[in-house]
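Running this now, will post back.
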Amino acid sequence: MLQLIGIILMIAGGARFAWALLFYLLNVSGRAGAHLSKKVGTDNDKTDEHIEGSKKFDKELFEKLLWSGCIIVFGFILYLFG
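Update: finished.
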């Protein structure tokens, strides 16, 4: 029974990890684009706001990645010892 719960946790944690990783990569890419437009000189007056908002969102996504990894590891431990 614990093995089944462990498998379910690993699948759920993996799905959450995949979505958070996708959004994390998109966020990093957007921030890099904002920095590049600032260097080139094609930025607008809200570019700095977007960069700061991106940094805050980056921290939240990184925290979700860590928690998802913990869920995966906990599910694996339940699967092994269940």
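Helices lie at 2-40, 47-81. More later if anyone needs it.
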